[in-house]
Design goal:
Blueprint: E1 3-10, H1 16-29, E2 35-42, E3 48-50, H2 60-63, E4 72-79, E5 82-87, E6 96-98, E7 100-103, H3 114-121, H4 131-138, H5 140-149, E8 157-161, H6 169-179, E9 183-187, E10 197-199, H7 205-212, E11 218-223, E12 228-237, E13 242-244, E14 248-250, H8 257-261, E15 289-290, H9 297-313, E16 318-327, E17 333-339, H10 347-350, H11 357-376
Parallel strand pairs: 1-2, 1-7
Antiparallel strand pairs: 2-3, 3-4, 4-5, 5-6, 8-11, 9-10, 9-11, 12-13, 12-14, 12-16, 14-15, 16-17
């Protein structure tokens, strides 16, 4: 009997459409001889939908604003030891049983531990980080503080809190001047390069921070490396055993949202399995890359060792991508951030290690089932007579 794999994607996130691109790639990478693949689309109103139309990215522009017109709205619930999907208005008679969840979500309200919490309450195996790992990986402000506590190398930074920015503006500006301009400002909980601002001088500081605060309540402000080499590495595994991919160098500089995902504004790349529509964005797979990255032996060692340490201290699980920055002038290596569910699942890195996309997905599913089996051996409840004391006399 095949394993039913439910691929969750979308959600109430600024990275909703990016999630759809990544998920479509996964839907076509999963081996149909091993799995019954069930795409579960989470609308921007956080409703669940299924339908064969979800296998073709060319359909998405038509239903994304009104998914109920072409897709079937469903409810997901626990029934004994099973997790089931049933229609809201009865288009199929028998509920579908889900064996494992495969989240391919990006951003707030989903990747930040929200979806993981839902799946944990259903007692359903899933392939990504748990609530803690997801939330640590999403909030760049907390992430930086965890890095600092664990001696992870990073550039100088400080956090701006929106609720006191006006009141303490001069203090924040003083911190900015201490690091020195130019600076980078990032909304703490966004990804895909959304909302990032370059602050070149002091008289831009207020305006740029206020722009970032339109997206989030917290903003990370950090030193901008002027002569930057950006390199990335992926890690797959769990807290007991994890391994890293080859390291890539992103050769076309800082990637804003358009360069990453706009088929007209981004860099050209190899043909991507899964994105069926002509001219469709290939996500992070479209970026111009040098693999393996051109690094000194010591730099390579620092990146590999630091990546495994970051994976551990951030309570990560499954497959992540960790981004690093190298100052070309000094040669210093700095950890930038983790992506707990990276775009395209970083398959473009693992293929250079001889791991094909379908094998990568197999390993993630196997890890999820093993984690579930280990957790089942732990004690989470026990019998007690406490409530007997509250019986009516």
């Amino acid at each position: 009997m095949k394993i039913c794999v439910a691929v969750f994607f979308g959600g109430k996130s600024t990275e909703h459409e990016i999630s759809c691109i990544s998920a479509n790639q996964v839907l076509h990478a999963l081996n149909s001889e091993k799995y019954d693949v069930l795409p579960i689309y989470i609308s921007k109103e956080n409703e669940f939908f299924i339908g064969d139309e979800l296998f073709d990215l060319a359909n998405y522009a038509d239903f994304i604003k009104d998914p109920g017109r072409t897709l079937q709205k469903v409810a997901i619930y626990k029934d004994g030891n099973a997790v089931k999907v049933r229609p809201v208005n009865g288009m199929f008679k028998k509920p579908i049983n889900i064996d494992v969840a495969f989240p391919v979500v990006h951003g707030t309200n989903v990747e930040d531990g929200s979806l993981a919490g839902f799946l944990q309450m259903l007692d359903l195996p899933f392939t990504s980080c748990d609530v803690l790992g997801g939330s640590l990986g999403q909030d760049k402000a907390v992430m930086k503080d965890v890095f600092k506590a664990n001696d992870i190398p990073m550039v100088d930074y400080f956090i701006v809190y929106g609720n006191d920015f006006e009141e303490n503006y001069e203090e924040y500006l003083k911190k900015a001047k201490k690091i020195r301009f130019p600076l980078i400002a990032k909304p703490a909980n966004l990804g895909s390069s959304i909302g990032i601002e370059v602050i070149k001088k002091a008289d831009e500081f207020k305006e740029k921070i206020e722009e970032c605060l339109k997206y989030d309540f917290k903003v990370v402000v950090e030193d901008m490396i002027k002569d930057l080499k950006e390199v990335n590495i992926s890690v797959i595994g769990n807290q007991n055993k994890a391994r890293f991919s080859p390291i890539e160098e992103v050769s076309n500089g800082f990637l804003d949202f358009d360069k990453k995902y706009n088929p007209n504004g981004g860099a050209k790349g190899s043909k991507m399995k899964g994105a069926k529509s002509a001219g469709a964005s290939k996500g992070m797979a479209s970026t111009v890359r040098i693999v393996p990255a051109k690094l000194e032996a010591q730099q390579k060692k620092i990146i590999e060792e630091t990546a495994l340490k970051v994976f551990k201290v951030l309570n990560s699980f499954g497959l992540v991508r960790i981004d690093f920055m190298i100052d070309r002038k000094s040669g210093n290596v700095y950890c930038n951030e983790i992506n707990t569910i990276p775009g395209s699942l970083a398959f473009y890195l693992w293929k250079h290690a001889g791991l094909e996309f379908d094998q990568e997905c197999d390993e993630m599913i196997e890890n999820a089932l093993n984690r579930y089996a280990l957790k089942a051996k732990k004690t989470y409840s026990f019998d007690t007579t406490i409530l007997e004391n509250y019986r009516k006399k």
